[in-house]
């Protein structure tokens, strides 16, 4: 049996992360666990139209093959594409397009090798803005800005999603980190003003700590 050709690894445009599960797999609906992230990008950003076109072509090719192998017209109709790994974002209140596109990337966290019968686990590789691997624990929250390394993989048609494709997550580059609960000053309506500017002193303590005691442990600055 001929070996399937290796699919190219692609890089997404830079965008904002939504519901990132990149350090701990989600096991709520899948016992094997799944890493995932949604990427929100402006529809007119460089590379977005090309990625949409690639997804559409993979889904169309998958549907064409499924229909060719269908026993009859009724079975062929079951394979019509019902899902794509992207969606045009709509305003929650008005239902009008926002001008953004949402791409979903996923990675299966564990399984059993069909070749060896041995269990395996994996997780996405994480890199900082300079391209250095992130080895320590880091919380990656919604609103983080970054890029995704991935492959476009066609789905075997099912009655649930039809003939389609998925964006198989491989690695993530963190450009601007937002941790859980973090908000920027602009999110609170603050702009830049002249005046007091916060800095850490030489021994790393907060200037607010004074002589009243040490700052809570574990609140060290994460450097990339």
From TrEMBL:
Organism: Neorhizobium galegae bv. orientalis str. HAMBI 540
A single MF term (Gene Ontology): DNA binding
Source taxon at top rank: Bacteria
Cross-referenced Gene3D superfamilies: Nucleic acid-binding proteins
Region named Disordered: 1-24, 188-224
Domain Single-stranded DNA-binding protein BPT7: start-end pairs: 26-177
Name of this protein: Possible DNA-dependent RNA polymerase
One Pfam short name: SBB_T7
Ranges annotated as biased composition (Acidic residues): 191-224
InterPro entries: NA-bd_OB-fold (IPR012340), SBB_BPT7 (IPR049476), SSB_T7 (IPR016411)
């Amino acid at each position: 049996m001929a070996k399937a050709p290796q699919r190219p690894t692609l890089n997404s445009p830079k965008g904002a992360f939504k519901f990132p599960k990149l350090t701990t797999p989600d096991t709520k609906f899948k016992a094997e666990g799944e890493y995932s992230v949604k990427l929100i990008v402006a529809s007119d950003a460089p590379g977005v139209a090309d990625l949409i076109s690639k997804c559409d072509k993979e889904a169309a090719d998958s549907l064409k093959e499924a229909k060719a192998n269908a026993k009859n017209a009724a079975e062929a109709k079951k394979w019509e594409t019902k899902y794509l790994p992207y969606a045009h974002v709509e305003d929650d209140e008005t239902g009008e397009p926002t001008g953004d596109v949402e791409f979903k990337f996923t990675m299966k966290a564990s399984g059993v090798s069909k070749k060896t019968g041995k269990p395996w686990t994996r997780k996405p590789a994480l890199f900082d803005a300079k391209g250095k691997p992130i080895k320590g624990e880091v919380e990656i929250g919604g609103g983080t800005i970054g890029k995704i390394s991935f492959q476009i993989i066609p789905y075997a048609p099912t009655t649930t999603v039809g003939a389609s494709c998925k964006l198989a997550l491989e690695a993530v580059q963190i450009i601007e980190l937002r941790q859980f609960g973090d908000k920027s000053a602009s999110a609170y309506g603050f702009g830049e003003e002249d005046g007091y500017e916060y800095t850490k002193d030489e021994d790393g303590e907060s200037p607010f700590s004074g002589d009243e005691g040490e700052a809570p442990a574990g609140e060290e600055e994460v450097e990339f």
